[in-house]
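Data deposition worksheet. Section B asks for the primary sequence of the deposited chain exactly as it was used as input, without tags or linkers unless they were present during the calculation. Section C holds the resulting structure in token form. Section D is free text for depositor observations; keep each observation to a single sentence. Incomplete worksheets are returned to the depositor.
Section A, Depositor: J.P.
Section B:
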Amino acid sequence: MKVKKLHIIAPYPKGEAPSQRFRFEQYIHFLEKHHFEIRYHSFHTPKSWNRLYQKGRFIQKFVDLNYNFLRRWILLFQLIGAKHIFMHREMTHLGPPVFEWILVKIMRKKYVYDFDDAIWIPNYSSANARFQKLKCYWKVPYLIKWASKVSAGNDFLAAYAQQFNSRVEVIPTTIDTKNQHTKRVDHKKIPMVIGWTGTHSTMHYLDFVIPILRKLENEFDFIFKVISNKKPNYQLKSLLYQDWKEETEMEDLAEIQIGIMPLVLDAWSEGKCGFKALQYMALGMAAIVSPVGVNTKIIQHTENGFIAETTQEWEDALRLLLENKQLRSELGNHALESIQQKWSVDVWKEKYLNLLQ
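Section C:
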């Protein structure tokens, strides 16, 4: 069969952002088997991405920004003959949709648009708060409207997209249980490990459970493991911080026996695609999640995990899992079965292929 060039346009370098790794990057090998030649175009270079969330260094960030915009102008020329374009979130990390407008209105190109967060809602780090207006959140409806097809990560996002485009499909964030999430949790290991993984920008969700963990520290011997890109400042004797590293991600996660995903009920959280819970479950972990967004579809309470909303519900769930090794193991086994049946790459890969045909 004839090889088809697929141009993937994304904000971040390959392998660096969960939104990309769990949305489409894990399908690249499958697409290549089906005669797609992948051309990957990130807005940020690896160096500029690493500097983005560092405090200060404004001159270097300004230089990075201009260089990356130049690369996008060059990309437009590279897309002159393109027939298959897949765009995740946006072409530029900052600014109005100039490049997307040129691509559609001037070059007459079609693209598949993919998004997995409520990215029309302002959300930014404290390190870059002064520049948040440059993100131009208002551009998202236009990016959806101009797309030939839209892939949304959950029903909440799809409902938003359908206001601007009738060709919207829900393709959830998925887990590769054959090539990536192959480790399994050892529920017999002591001391027990409660854990959370995520970027520093979402670490504030943990504030809710810290007092609960502090209380349980007086009754149980456990470790609270945080895997992130920035060390938290929580006063917990059980706290163990570990830098996130792609090469050891699965081994580090598999040391956790109870995975937690606290959230607050707001539009931004409603747009989340539950990848933390999916990761936990794919390793055979017992998970506790807040009843927000897609979490209530992923977790069936007391069957493959726990859903907890109030302080007392969180404390009760944690206490029960800390006390009962057999329950942790049973929930973990049922969680893995759920992933394999509903949320795996194998289940959704044909849907992705059809989306791009």
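Section D:
The first helix runs from residue 18 to 21.
The longest strand covers residues 4-10.
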